[in-house]
Amino acid sequence: MNVAYHPDELEPASRAIAIGTFDGVHLGHRRVLDAALAASLRPAVVTFDPHPRTILGNRVELLATLERRLELLDELGFVDVLVVRFDAALAERSPEEFAESVLRAAGVEAIAAGEGFRFGHRRAGDLDLLERLGFDVRRVPLVANASSSHIRALLSTGEVGAAAQVLGRPAEVEGTVVLGDRRGGTLGFPTANLAVPADLLVPALGIYAGAAGGHRAAISIGTNPHYGGTERRVEAHLLDFDGDLYGQRLVVELWERLRDEAVFGSEQALVDAIADDVRRTRGAARPA
pLDDT class for 181, splitting at 50, 70, 90? Predict the structure, then answer.
């Protein structure tokens, strides 16, 4: 898949695009993406980074990094992605200027978008305007309860199974593996400690069954209260893994929330609880 950051970087072609931020690339987004893929033109995506709402002064906990978003779009079969930098200058462009300088310049002929899609200064542009400008517009009805905000709400309470049904795949958290306090290794359960990007959503505190790096994993999202910790950490114990992950990017799937984190009466009780977490992780099912 070709990734460009300006229309000039794309080779000349007649394109059918899906347009949107597509944070999480969930099932609601898939309707729009599938509509672009079904057109008889070169399939492409026009997406935005950073999230437009952040430039407008709102904090957004993202469901996926840009890197992960691009990987998911690649898996769907898109040939090109144009990542448009969303900044104050872009927010001031008229809808007509955006359509000509970005879409027309990228060879766009057909556009798939959610029926409520708005763009341009003060969100003045809509799909009717794109039709008047001569684009072949594919209007995609919204999917009930299939929204990024709904998924965020589910993950904030640890409902990873319900979130997976809307995402169309397991919920994820990702980061770079960094040095931790290495306490898990002394307990017999070494963990990969993740430095998670500041703008990425981290689900509710707790112990989860999931997978990472091709291995099942028991995942702790919490503060290590047994040891009096206060800083939130994301740690994954990869089952049947022996290797060095330091410095690597790791995408962790969360399949099932097993329990709350807890303070135990003894270190042995903690070890026994982790062993039970591992046992349950071995038997956990990956959400379809």
Answer: low
Q: What percentage of residues in the chain have a pLDDT greater than 90?
A: 88
Which token pair is 273?
């609880």
Q: For residues 130 and 155, state if they share a domain.
A: no
Pairwise CA distance, residues 95 & 228, whole Å: 54
Q: What is the pLDDT averaged over residues 180-208?
A: 88
Q: Helix 160-167 vs helix 148-156: angle between axes, to the nearest 10 degrees?
A: 160
179 burial type by CB count under 10 A (0-12 exposed, 13-18 middle, 19+ buried)? exposed
Is residue 93 located within the same domain as residue 208?
no
- The answer to whether residues 214 and 223 touch, using CB atoms and an 8 Å cutoff, is no
Q: What is the mean pLDDT of residues 269-287?
A: 97
Range of the domain at 25: 2-6+11-140
Look-up of token digits 């047994």? 226
The answer to whether 69 and 22 have CB atoms below 8 angstroms apart is yes
φ/ψ of residue 125, rounded to 5: -90, 145
pLDDT digits (tens, 9 = 90+) for 12-41: 999 999 999 999 999 999 999 999 999 999
120: left (phi over 0), alpha (psi -120 to 50) or beta: left
pLDDT of residue 183: 64
Tokens of 104: 């027309």
Is the peptide bond between 7 and the residue preceding it cis, with omega within 30 degrees of 0? no
Structure pTM? 0.94
